[in-house]
Amino acid sequence: MVYNAESGRTMMTAALSYDDGKTWPYSITLYTSYTTYPDVSTVTVDGVEQIHVVFDRDRYNYGRVYHGIFTEDYIKEHSGETIERSTLDRVTSIK
Asked: What is the secondary structure of 38-77 as a DSSP string?
């Protein structure tokens, strides 16, 4: 699941559950500032399932679209961390 962990659409977080959402033992923070709601999909590349997350930030002023690609193993290995912003690709400027 990818969601804003705090009110005001901040703390974009990716979390994993292996018991139908009863618990979420692994999570990473993708972005700490204000963002819109994310779009998420999974893609299998060379037998590895990738999690793709796309969201934008401040579309009316700053205007950036970000794309992150992660695996479940990455989330497990970095659980509790805020990832480096450079891990996210800036796809384009909205303006």
From this structure: -EEEEEEETTEEEEEEEEEE-TTTT-EEEEEEE-HHHHHH
Give just the sign of the alpha carbon dihedral 63, 4, 30, 10. positive
Global pTM reads 0.85
The residue type found at 68 is G
Q: What is the per-residue burial (b if ≥16 Cβ within 10 Å, else e) of 47-63?
A: eeeebebbbbbeeeeee
Considering only the C-alpha atoms of the chain, give the largest distance between any 2 of them, rounded to a whole number of Å. Answer: 42
Mean pLDDT by 10 residues, the chain (95 residues): 91 96 96 89 94 85 83 94 81 47
Task: List the chain domain ranges.
Answer: 2-93
